[in-house]
Amino acid sequence: MFDALLIIAIAYIFGSFPTAIIAGKLLKKIDIRDFGSGNAGATNVLRTLGWKAALVVLLIDMIKGFVPVFWIAGIIHTQPDTLIYYQILAAISAIAGHIWTIFAGFKGGKGVGTSAGVFMGLAPIPLLSALIFFIIIVSITRFVSLGSITAALMLLIVLSYQKFIAMMFVPDVLYYLTVVVVVLIWYAHRENIIRLLKGEESKVSFSSSNH
Which of 13, 33, 93, 136 is the most exposed, fewest CB within 10 Å of its CB? Predict the structure, then answer.
């Protein structure tokens, strides 16, 4: 029980690191949440600070998901037969920390980058499929939000195919984690979904100029 609580606490704090907010303060002395979509994530950094800053923020956000799951959990809990359960706890906590960061009034990003870091090792093939789908959708539509929510769904679809059709070994706890993450990502994008349905969502530009 102590292991679980310790992993939850550390992973949450690790996930809470406010990457986008720090980028705004360092590069333009602004609160990124006062500009663009008001979201403290890589997409709003792209709109406000440019693609180079957004790329760095995205990579750090992915590390925020990867390190708690594949390093911290293994250090704290050393029993390999039950490690996956503690990795799942770390994953959920890190993603929750990114969305509801304790360092910025519980108003963070939407969990996409951190989720990608989590699934980098837990489900690499579904993640790769989701990333390819994300790139295609964003390239065609220029809607990052649409790419994010459909990529999350693609992650679940591919994992479902592996588990129920290809009969590959997919731990139940990993499958349930994926369902939870997809729900979290869709919930975090609820305002974007409304704007997409109304035709009011902003398209993203990949030019090098900052806005």
Answer: 136
- The encoded tokens of residue 110 equal 């939407």
H-assigned helices in 68-170: 73-76, 83-99, 112-122, 124-141, 144-160
* 70-92 confidence digits (pLDDT tens): 999 999 998 999 999 999 999 99
pTM attached to this predicted model: 0.90
Asked if residue 98 belongs to a domain, the reply is yes
Distance CA 162, CA 156 (A): 10
d(CA 20, CA 32) in angstroms, rounded, equals: 7
With a CB cutoff of 8 Å and minimum separation 6, the contacts of 166 are none
Within-domain flag for 140: yes
> What residues make up the domain containing 119?
2-198
Residue the block writes with tokens 């989590």: 118
**Integer Cα distance of 148 and 131 in angstroms:** 9
